[in-house]
Amino acid sequence: MTPSTIKLEITAEDYRIAGLAAAAVGLTLAEAAIPLPLPGVKPGLANIVTLIVLYQFGWRAAVWVSLLRIVAGALALGTFLTPTFVMSLAGGLSSLMILGLAGHLPRRLFGPVGLSALAAFAHIGAQLGVVGVWLMPGVNLLPLLSMFLGAAWISGLVNGLVVAGLLKSGVSGAKS
Amino acid sequence: MKPTAVLSLLKPGDWLVLAGGAVLVAALWGHGGNGDRVLIKQGGRVFLETTPRLDREVAVPGPLGITQVEIRGGRVRIKSDPGRHQICVKQGWLGPGQVAICLPNRVSVERGASVYDSLNY
Questions:
Q1: What is the mean pLDDT of residues B58-68?
Q2: Residue ranges of domains in chain B
Q3: Which end of chain B is more exposed for a tag (fewer CB within 10 A), N or C?
Q4: Long-range contacts of range B19-26, CB-CB < 8 Å, 24 or more positions apart?
Q5: Which among A75, A69, A56, A77 has a CA at the least distance from the CA of A95?
């Protein structure tokens, strides 16, 4: 057998992203075990990791960590390629896009809480979009919109405060 | 952590985003709430489930003939019925939660709250 000529260079950044994604997957799994009053309303704890990565390693790393988390989390929970996965992916992509745009906002005025809230709104907006267009077309989602946006507001605020607190106290994801 | 320490984590733009979000939630609160479903039954079976937002007339066939159900401007009524007493027709436009029943023709029209079955998703 000829030895493989393909050599994968594993950089320090690869290790870092893998470690951070593992932390995010851990939070996703822990969150799945929490019983919640309403289906579809989750605290989105993994977004804490995404935001910290965004602040410390930039948007590209945040995209990697977030997408790895969505795929690996879905594989672990057994929802890969199900509607749940599609909703998770849509929410993740749209909040990453918002975070990419919000990265251009002045840092002096906008902190982690603002970014977290914007990302949460984008997340739930995209998910309701998927439900309205693909899963249950024709269903009137308007009565649910305020409730879901309210939940996103709270989780965005809480997660943002956690991120701001962690960044302030100098917790570094680089160690993982 | 003290409350002041928590507040120091928020920047002006963050307040702006949070306030905007709160205004949006408040504005949408109670919008398109209950009573956005029209359920037409014939002989105990669901004949049609629809929304009052779509203007239309539905002809429901029963043992005596056709019962005409009219949906217009977010309201619903029984326009005509082959029954003798015309009770359901005289009832006029239905408010949310009301039901009109044309007993001889076994047609009922419910103006009810929609039940969103989120458990299945």
A1: 91
A2: 1-31, 37-120
A3: N
A4: B21/A117, B21/A121, B21/A149, B21/A152, B21/A153, B21/A156, B22/A153, B24/A149, B25/A146, B25/A149, B25/A150, B25/A153, B26/A146
A5: A69
In whole angstroms, what is the distance from residue A154 CA to residue A66 CA? 21
Q: Give the nearest chain A residue to B3 (CA atoms).
A: A161
| Phi–psi pair at B119, nearest 5 degrees | -65, -30
Q: Which residues of B touch A (CB under 8 A)?
A: 1, 6, 9-14, 16-18, 21-22, 24-26, 28-34, 36, 51, 53, 114, 116, 118-119, 121
List the domain boundaries for chain A.
12-175
CATH 2.60.320.10 fits B37-120, yes or no: yes
Complex ipTM:
0.81
A122: chain B residues, CB-CB within 8 Å: none
**Residue-wise pLDDT tens digits, A121-147:** 999 999 989 988 888 776 667 777 888
CATH of domain A12-175: 1.10.1760.20
Predicted TM-score of the model (pTM): 0.69
- Nearest by CB to A110, which of B14, B26, B121? B14
